[in-house]
Amino acid sequence: MSDGMKEVDESPVVPCEEGPSGRITGHKTLISPTRGWRALDVREIWNYRELLWILTGRDIKVRYKQTALGVAWVILRPVLSVAIFTAVFGYLAKIPSEGYPYPVFVLSALIPWTFFSSAVASSGNSLLGSAGLIGKIYFPRLIIPVASVGSSVVDFAIAAVFLLAVLPLFDVAWTLSLLWVPVLLLMVLCLALGVGTLFSALIVRYRDFVGLMGYLLQVWMYATPVVYPASLVPGPWRWILYLNPMAGLTEAFRAAFLGRPLEPGPLALSCVASVGVLAVGAVYFAKVERRFADII
């Protein structure tokens, strides 16, 4: 069965052989590709959940294979970034941190941003990395970028535990706001999966998007309040900032980690945008996936 050919139509039965008595001795099965929303079959992805777990585990192992520090890189990367941001933006540029020590102020937003950018980058390139598998057997291709995003959750969990461990060292207490973290993680996951699946489908057809994706993520970080607070943006312009769905989610993560109340307006806008981007990315992916095996 060719790539994306999932829909079987056996009605009407088309005769393919006729015996001497005129009786039909065989029939032809017509197979046509699914299109539009019908191509996005969540139940089929659930049926292939074991493959999803296998690919997720593979991505996790490959990420740290033949590295001397292994999982320690999950902590070292944001720590090194925080050190640079603290020196440049905290001490030199004097960016305000709303009364919190600048290192934890940045780290509380950098951890969700790192998860998002890593998930988008890995899922965007995931189809090219699995070209051999795509050309050999049939399975829902959406599983590949989903597995890439899922493997990034492990990195987020390790980094978040590290942040929780160092918060008391900066006199920042744990609060019930931390209960928001799983919900916010789910929203960032939806957004990352939507953007990642969109890029993965585009990269298969146009390799130029590999470089464009990296550049976009760099610009996107500075359009997101990671190294600066959203309050630094003047009031009339702040809602333009919140058109970026990662802006509201990043601020919500910072509030949850640091024990501040969450702003419902920007968070609601970000959640709606995240679900919308996921829907657009998944539908576009399902629309073009039947051609992946031919052009990858």
Label this structure with key terms.
single chain, 296 residues, 13 helices, 2 strands, 64% helix, disordered N terminus
Write the layout of secondary structure elements.
Elements (H helix, E strand, L loop, with lengths): L6 E9 L11 E6 L9 H6 L1 H16 L7 H21 L9 H23 L1 H4 L1 H4 L8 H24 L14 H25 L2 H15 L12 H7 L3 H14 L5 H25 L3 H4 L1
Antiparallel strand pairs: 1-2
Question: What does this entry show, briefly?
Answer:
This protein has 296 residues and is mainly alpha-helical.
Account of the protein in words:
By secondary structure, the protein is mainly alpha-helical. The protein folds into two domains: 1-33, no CATH class; 41-295, no CATH class. The chain contains 13 helices and two strands; from the N terminus they run ββααααααααααααα. It has helices at 42-47, 49-64, 72-92, 102-124, 126-129, 131-134, 143-166, 181-205, 208-222, 235-241, 245-258, 264-288, 292-295, and strands at residues 7-15, 27-32. Helix 7 (143-166) packs antiparallel against helix 8 and helix 11 (245-258) crosses helix 12 (264-288). The radius of gyration is 23 Å and the shape is globular.
Measured between the Cα atoms of the first and last residue, the distance is 17 Å
Largest sheet: 2 strands, antiparallel
Give the low-confidence spans: 1-25, 27-33
State the helix count.
13
Oligomer: single chain
Overall strand count = 2
Average pLDDT score? 84
What fraction of residues sit in β-strands?
5-15%
- Which structural class fits the helix and strand makeup? mainly alpha
How many separate domains? 2
Choose one word for the global shape: globular
The helix content, as a percent range, equals 55-70%
Q: Spatial order of the strands in the main sheet? A: 1-2
Element order, helices and strands? Answer: EEHHHHHHHHHHHHH
Gyration radius, to the nearest Å? 23 Å
